[in-house]
Amino acid sequence: MAEPRGIDPRGPRFAASITSVLLLVATLLALVGISTQGSASFGWFAYQPMGDFAFVSRSAWAIEMASVGARVLDLGFLAVLVIALLFLWGVVSPRTAPWGVLYRRAIQPRLTPPADLEDPRPPRFAQGVGLFVTAVGLVLHAVGIPLALPIAAALAFMAAFLNAVFGLCLGCQLWLLLQRIGLVGRAG
Fold first, then answer.
1. Distance separating alpha carbons of residues 153 and 24, to the nearest angstrom
2. pLDDT digit string (tens) for 118-172?
3. Which residues contact 165 (CB under 8 A, 6 or more apart)?
4. Where do runs of H (alpha helix) occur along 66-147?
5. Which of 6, 15, 68, 86 is the most buried (most CB within 10 A)?
6. What are the percentages of helix, strand and coil residues in the chain, rounded to 5?
7. Which backbone phi and psi does 169 adopt, to 5 degrees?
8. How far apart are CA 146 and CA 30, in angstroms?
């Protein structure tokens, strides 16, 4: 049987729903982890008053003093790492990615056929954008940049949430913009 030229547009939205829940949990874990902890007090409030102003002290962040091993074993880091690996799976082999398989086997047979199919390249590109954002957060966290991990996880969460709830795929929109200016493949 020949492969269909497009994909059911409800599949990526289903995957975004699961991904947004995972990213919300990862963001919360990153917010309570080493990335936001101060050496003397809790992360956001770790400051030293100087005159009439309050400045964030560079030495106030626990992540800067932690070893690379401690940074990598942080629960927020591990959660975002798992999500980044799922994004990588979605880029390398979208047909075997777990949320796509779950959708095709458990959800799609219970639905009416889609009215029209969509090009699989934009959702795949969106997975790559999610991979890039989470990978940057992971690398910055590993080198000891405070708040990098929760910010990256929150950005990825917002993009997945927009796709899941409103059907607005930011990575797909970026693909279309890049296609319009000729940087990625033309529809064929």
1. 8
2. 999 999 999 999 999 999 999 999 999 999 999 999 999 999 999 999 999 999 9
3. none
4. 68-72, 75-92, 98-102, 121-142
5. 15
6. 65, 5, 30
7. -95, 105
8. 11
